[in-house]
Amino acid sequence: MDGSEALFYDTYALYAIATGKESYSAFAKGKIVTGLMNLYEFYYIVIKENNSELAEEFFNRLISSCVKINTSLVKEAANFRFKEIKRKLSYIDCLGYVIAKENKIKFLTGDIGFKGMTNVKFVE
């Protein structure tokens, strides 16, 4: 990864970067695109771990990286989740995945449910 390729960072990717996971170090300087719901989920996870400073730092840094959610994508995400029900994907991840497709960028995740899917950059 050269840092110029835009990717949609799901909550897993945001958390991996914030906590310094080695396999995500190359993505820390990349062009981050994410959704407000992913940022919400990330913030919740980090404050639940009693690290409100880290939550605030990343929230403030990433809020400008959030793309608008076209309301038709909500329906598309629900249909996608239903179609892929056996994968046990979260609502927020399904929304992020369809947002990534809509924006013609890959969905960056380490969520095993997305492994092997099209338009996914899977990194453990």
What is the CA–CA distance across the termini? 15 Å
Supply the number of helical segments: 5
What would you give as the CATH superfamily?
5'-nuclease
Number of domains: 1
CATH classification, class level = Alpha Beta
Question: What is the averaged pLDDT score?
Answer: 95
Number of beta-strand segments: 5
Any overview of this molecule?
The protein is of the alpha/beta class. It has a single domain (6-122), classed as Rossmann fold. It is 46% helix and 15% strand. It has five helices and five strands, in the order E-H-E-H-H-E-H-H-E-E. It has a five-stranded parallel beta sheet. Helix 1 (11-18) crosses helix 2, helix 2 (36-48) packs antiparallel against helix 3 and helix 4 crosses helix 5 (91-102). The protein is globular and about 40 Å long.
Could you outline the blueprint of secondary structure elements for this entry?
Elements: E1 6-9, H1 11-18, E2 31-35, H2 36-48, H3 52-62, E3 66-67, H4 71-83, H5 91-102, E4 106-109, E5 120-122
Parallel strand pairs: 1-2, 1-4, 2-3, 4-5
Helix pairs in contact: 1-2, 2-3, 4-5
Structural features:
single chain; 124 residues; alpha/beta; Rossmann fold; 5 helices
Brief overview:
The protein is α/β, with parallel strands linked by helices. It is built from 5 helices and 5 strands, in the order E-H-E-H-H-E-H-H-E-E. The chain has one domain: Rossmann fold.
